[in-house]
Amino acid sequence: MAGHLARAGQRVAVWNRTRSRGEAWVAEHGGRAARSPADAARGARFVFCCTGDDQALRALALGPDGAFEGLAAGALFVDHTTASPGLARELARAGAARGIAVLDAPVSGGEEGARRGALTVMAGGDAADFARAEPLLSAYAKSATLMGPHGAGQLTKLVNQICIAGVVEGLAEGLHFARRAGLDVGRVIDVVSQGAAGSWQMTNRARSMAEGRFDFGFAVDWMRKDLGFALAEARGNGARLPLVALVDQLYAELQALGRGRLDTSSLITLLD
Questions:
Q1: Sorting pLDDT into bands at 50, 70 and 90, what band is 112?
Q2: What's the chain's average pLDDT?
Q3: Which of 2, 189, 202, 205 lies 20 to 30 Å from 110, alpha-carbon distance?
Q4: Domain span at residue 79?
Q5: CB 180 within 8 A of CB 128
Q6: pTM over 0.85
Q7: Pairing state of beta strands 46-49 and 141-148?
Q8: Which of 113, 129, 148 is at the close of a domain?
């Protein structure tokens, strides 16, 4: 994502918890490797952040050497992490106290979508701030939509994860059934992907699932984190998520087996 911004002509400073990664990025794209989030943010009009979870995001933004320490009033902090809606609102309040605008803007499309500049961005925040960010988001997103006030982007991403969880479990059970029924699984995928069962998951994961390849993609650990956010929100708003609760427990079983870093499509291994 930072590479797309650099190729679009932006002057970019980068920071990564693994310093060598930031240095390798600068060697390829130019720009500057920063010493800390505050150093990266210092003098910037826009800061784009993407990290793993609430704890990492809070430290990166609000910690002693966090990005908010380096940002001047009037700057815009765009967070692409899939984090809790509550933290999105907390960051917005902390930013407002310093004169910093904040957007929660989680993305969908995975690593491949980031490489191709074809991510989908779902944002929460003020319309004027979103309009400021939109030209830059277009460097790496095929679609960017303001979903509502602060937290609405994260809530929309949870809808995305809820839908994916059900599709992956259904795909796992379908392929498992095809194998047990003695069908040619490759031909089954060819046929059913052309009909109503077709989906991104089937197009991009069915064959690797059938081949038992899971050392790539979106990790079980991250999906479990996201489903935890969804279940927590559901307890507060009264939504009923029985399928999410089931899939969350299946992912917990994978974690217990030491498979937390495998792709989410590894659900099928519990059936086979």
A1: confident
A2: 97
A3: 189
A4: 2-148
A5: no
A6: yes
A7: unpaired
A8: 148
Please report which helix (H) or strand (E) contains residue 77, including its range.
strand 76-79
Residue with tokens 């991403």: 157
- DSSP category for residue 266: G
pLDDT-based confidence at residue 97 (cuts at 50, 70, 90) = very high
- 142 catalytic per annotation: no
| 193-230 core/surface letters (b: 16 or more CB in 10 A; e: else) | eeeebebebbeebbbbbbeeebeebbbbbbbbbbbebb
Number of domains in the chain: 2
Are 167 and 263 in the same domain?
yes
User: Encoding tokens for residue 178?
Assistant: 């095809």
Contact in structure between 92 and 83 (CB atoms under 8 Å): no
**Annotated catalytic residue: which of 4, 150, 157, 224?**
157
Domain co-membership, 59 together with 169: no
The single-letter code of the amino acid at 97 is A
Give CA 67 to chain center in angstroms: 20
Cα separation values, 40 from 2, 138, 158, 219, Å: 13, 22, 29, 28
Residues 6+ away with beta carbon under 8 Å from 37: 15, 49, 60, 61, 63, 65, 66, 67, 69, 70
**Contact criterion met (CB below 8 Å) for 205 and 265:** yes
CA distance 144 to 166: 24
Q: What is the CATH number of the domain that holds 116?
A: 3.40.50.720
With contact defined as beta carbons under 8 Å apart, do 271 and 224 qualify? no
Tell me the two tokens of residue 210: 């059938």
User: How far is Cα 55 from Cα 25, in angstroms, rounded to an integer?
Assistant: 25
Separation CA 115–CA 214 (nearest Å):
19
